[in-house]
Amino acid sequence: MKAVTITQPGGPEVLEWTDVPDPVPQTGEVLIEVEASAVNRADILQRQGLYDPPPGTSPYPGLECSGRIAALGPGVASWTVGDEVCALLTGGGYAEKVIAPVGQVLPIPKGVGLVEAAALPEVTCTVWSNLFGWFDGGDLTSSGLFAAAHLRPGETLLVHGGSSGIGTMAIQLAKAVGAKVAVTAGTREKLDRCAELGADILVNYREQDFVAAVRKATNGAGADVILDNMGAKYLDRNVKALAVNGRLAIIGMQGGVKGELNIGALLAKRAAISATSLRARPLGEKAAIVAAVREHVWPLIDAGHVRPVVDREVPMSDAAAAHRVVEESGHVGKVLLVAP
After folding, report:
1. Which end of the chain is more exposed for a tag (fewer CB within 10 A), N or C?
2. Helix (H) or strand (E) holding 174
3. CATH number of the domain enclosing 179
4. Is the dihedral of CA 49, 51, 54, 55 positive or negative?
5. Any domain includes 189
6. In what residue span(s) does the Enoyl reductase (ER) domain sit (predicted)?
7. Strands 156-160 and 180-185
8. Which residues of 7-45 are buried (b: 16+ CB within 10 A; e: fewer)?
9. pTM for this structure?
């Protein structure tokens, strides 16, 4: 088969579409013939040599895919060859074939095309596990083992990078539970797209101080929950933007890895900070998250209340071009890589 390999750490030019050995599914795994994958920031970090895949996993980038099941490993009875699926991956999605643990495989939601479905696994699982919960028997607003942020109806969520793949999904799911949503983005066009998805408070971070803007829009209260992809650069201001009993969920480090935290401000607000990554979670945790997404999020997609947002489709053999688009933030939603 062919896959996108990283010849050496560097810019997009180090991505090469080349022949590699076919993967073979082991116990509890399925082999998927890939229809499409998607570009995530983690893929860019891996290409730059800053985010190695976990030991024993595929060396190729790609944390999600859609396609058809081509083979079943021993012990897999819940799927059949030919089923159309999408899957959360630890790596390897930029390829014609990929292995996925059975617990990380999802059916294609109603009304979503097979290529388009590649935009769903990473964003739905990331947003769910940070803002809502992992698994339970209740509705979207309750969970037994829940995320530290635990967004509730009537609360205000601030999403940094509202026009990103994560951001566009967070807006929709937050609105589905009855929350108010504030977003930051760098252009009027991107903010308009966020508003179309339901965002209530629009902040152009190039022109406005998001702390002041969110406080003004909430009558001085601040955001109950912040979903942050920036990390160190926004740490101090995020704490200032939090409401009393607020929760800050850090899921990225685009703004650096080391910041100064005012413990006094955090104590005064009785606030909490959590930081998570999805890729390195144990298989059991990821399977629980995927199961919860299927139970709680898939019905919203089936009903048309939530949808994947796709900016463009790029041939997988031209992954370098797709990486350039994402690195330049020249997109809204997801950039997909379509296999031959």
Report:
1. C
2. helix 165-176
3. 3.40.50.720
4. positive
5. yes
6. 10-337
7. parallel
8. eeeeebebbebeebeebebeeebbbbbbbbbbbbbbbbb
9. 0.94
